[in-house]
Each structure stands twice: as structure tokens, then as C-alpha cells.
Amino acid sequence: MYTVTNPATGELVEEVANATDEQVRAAIDRVHHGFAAWRRRPVAERAKIVARAAELFAERSDELAAIMTLEMGKRINEGRGEVGIVVDIFNYYAEHGPALLADEPLRIRGGEAVIVKQPIGALLGVMPWNFPCYQVARFVAPNLVLGNTILLKHASICPRSATAIAEILHDAGVPEDVYVNTFAASRQVPSILADPRIVGVSLTGSEPAGISVATEAGRNLKKTVLELGGSDPLIVLDTADLDETVKATATARMRNCGQSCNAPKRMIVLADLYDDFVDRMSKHVTDFFQPGDPADPAAKLPPLASVAAADEVAEQVRRAVEQGATLRAGGNRIEPGAYLAATVLTDITPEMDAYYEEIFGPVVVVFRAETEDEAIAIANDSPFGLGASVWGTDPARLRRVADQIEAGMVYFNRAGGSVADLPFGGIKRSGIGRELGPAGIEEFMNKKAIRL
User: Fold this and answer.
1) Of the residues 207, 227, 435, 443, which is catalytic?
2) Helix, strand or coil for residue 275?
3) Number of helices and strands (H, E) in the chain?
4) Burial 225-239 (b: 16+ CB within 10 A, else e)
5) Residue 393: is its pLDDT beyond 90?
6) In sequence order, what are the beta bridge partners of 389?
7) Closest CA relative to residue 412, chosen from 396, 425, 423, 426
8) Which pTM was predicted?
9) Which of 15, 201, 233, 364 has the fewest CB atoms found within 10 Å of its own CB?
10) Is pLDDT at 416 greater than 90 in this prediction?
11) Residue 99's CB: how many other CB atoms inside 10 A?
């Protein structure tokens, strides 16, 4: 069952029945047959349709933001901001897609060749709830321009987002059999991947979900892109303004109520700044991030996406304290709804669960490092490797540290976020493959070599 439950109140708003097995098979048939015509459409035509989708996303920004606020508790202004990134992504691939798909001449020994860039077929997208529009855009925009077709299974708490996205794409001119939304259940995903008409899958979600999908995809020899969890380190080397650094890093952590894969979940501060940083961070999150109605533009801390999610994060905090961590601020559930007070934890050691696990909520974890080398060691002591950030005033030092961090992305004096033309993805248990930028259009591409 797909359900809409307002996380600010706990009110059940809507229930949508899962697709039957017959409906899922029919959806697969549609995107399979839709591929033949779509791939033959000139890339300029496909790009024009994607550009029109960007216009419609912009026009319906308020509607989409309101849906996200209702479904998963996103602050209304953050919802509008998310749609803005979606517009950028669709515009990027509409503008640059044709050039990225141009034939690539290749000089080889004894002659010449050309690399021809072609689509591969019908793809399955399994999308999460934390960024209901952005995550879909990362997968859909480049593949529509490339010429693939898409069967989209959204998160079970986001049926209205799924429906609104499909309506926008179809209104923009994407044929009904090129993008098909399905309210499939998770239990139906293995059978979808076993169907030979589906040739690849992209999943953004949890590590367990990624393992499950990767297992089925591997068993059926399907191309896979996975964007999974993260426990991104944020290293503070030095600062010209500690208060501003605290505010900026807190804002990055609390974005989307801390429910971002590439949020800075582990802040590693050099010893000379550590005590002041922790004191100011604890005061700032307590004073500034007060719970509020996510539909109110003035709200600073929305609920988590569900009561279950809030309870899980609260339990992680409780267990960390029980194992010896120090609770500097927050940690308590706030009812009604799915609220958790903005939280600061310190003194976490490798013996504690919280040292290695991802905390997907408004929780700041701060580590003390005596030296730059120790900060790097703490940053890399993680099963994840999605993103990271380094904060300081010396560009050469920032680059030196960044080069030693094990992650797919490193930012200077900023954390998290995403831009359309910069590849997004990680290493280790944070996933496989890249989205966005030039790399994002290549994952489900046949780079056919033709010997001339």
C-alpha cells in the first residue's frame, strides 16, 4: 500500500493500492515497446521535450513543494529549492545532451574508429522519499535525452509526488509509453529485474535496499547504478570566523531535517577549536532550530518523514548515550508528529554503534582531532564514501587534505548540496556509478565502437 501520512500531525491522508502483478507486467511491456520509437526520435527532439519539462517543473513549483511538505515533511521553502535544482538538471541535459551524445572519433593503430553513443533500452528506477523530485530528475533527465525508456517505482510514502512528476513529463511531450509510473510493491522488484525486457536499474536508497537490488540485478546480469547511504565527514582545520562556520555547518547538517545522504554527519574539529566549536554548535542548534510547521516558511526544524523514522533516530541517540557518548543538546522526541529536537553528540568512540552507522536525522556528531593527519584518519574510518568537506582558510592545505579523503566528492568551505553539471556519487558502501554532469548520461549508454 502507498500511503500519504502527514508527518507533522500523524494524520493519514490517502491510501493507494499497490499495482497487481498483471499491471506491473503490462507496465514493463509498455516501456519495452516504447523504446523502439523513442530511440529513433532525433536527439534534438528529445532534448526539446526535456527542456519543456524544465519549464513545467518551474511553473508547478509551488504545487510540488506543497506535495513534498505533506508527504514527507519537507520545509516548504526547501521544497521550492528542490524544484529549482530539478529545473537546472532538466535544462542542463536539454542544452548539453546533444553534444554529449555526439560521435567520438578514435584514432587506433592501423586505422580509425568511432565511438557511437546509443541508448540500451527500458530501465527501472527505484526512488527514495527524502528528495522526491530531485532524485527522480537525476535519473530521468539524462536517460530521456539519451533515448532510454523508464519504469519508475517511487517510495511508498510519495504517491502524489510520483503522479505529479509523471503528469509533468507527459504534458511536456514525453510519450505515455516512454515514462511509466508504477505503484509496484517492493516485493515485486525482483520479478521486474528478472524480466529480460528491463535492461538496467538505478536505485537511490538505503544500504539494505541497495544490496537487495544489486543481488537481483547481478543474478540477472543487469546494469546497475546505486546511490546509497553516507556518513560524510566535515573537517574544520581553521577559520577566520568561528560563529559563521558553526552556523554554516549546522545549516548544512540540518538541511532536509538531516535526511540527506550527503549531509555532513561527522564533524571533525582540530583540538584548538574543538571546545568552542562544540559549545557554540550546541547553543546554536538549540536556539535556532526550533520545531515548526513545515508548511510555514518561517519554520526552522520540520518533522522527519515519518514517526518510525523519528523513533529510529531517537533510539540511535539513546543507544549512543547508553554506550558512553555525551549528549550536548536535544535528543528528545517531540509529539505529536515525527519531530526530534536538534541534537549534538560528542565523545563517540569506535566501540559505539554511532561511530560507524549513518544517523539519518537532525543530529550533529562532533569528533576531536589533535592533528591534521588524525582528522583525515577519522574521516576515512568509515564504511561509507559518498561526500566530504574541508573547511579552512589556506587553499593549498584544503587541497592537500581533500586529496587524502576517501570519497566520491569533496567540497571546500561548503557541504552537501548538488549542482546539475557536477558528477554525484560515492565509493565503498555508498554506491556504484555516477549521476549528473557528463558522467550521468553515460551510465546506461552503449558506447559502440565502429572500426572504419
Assistant:
1) 227
2) helix
3) 15, 22
4) bbbbbbbbbbbbbeb
5) yes
6) 234, 411
7) 396
8) 0.97
9) 15
10) no
11) 9
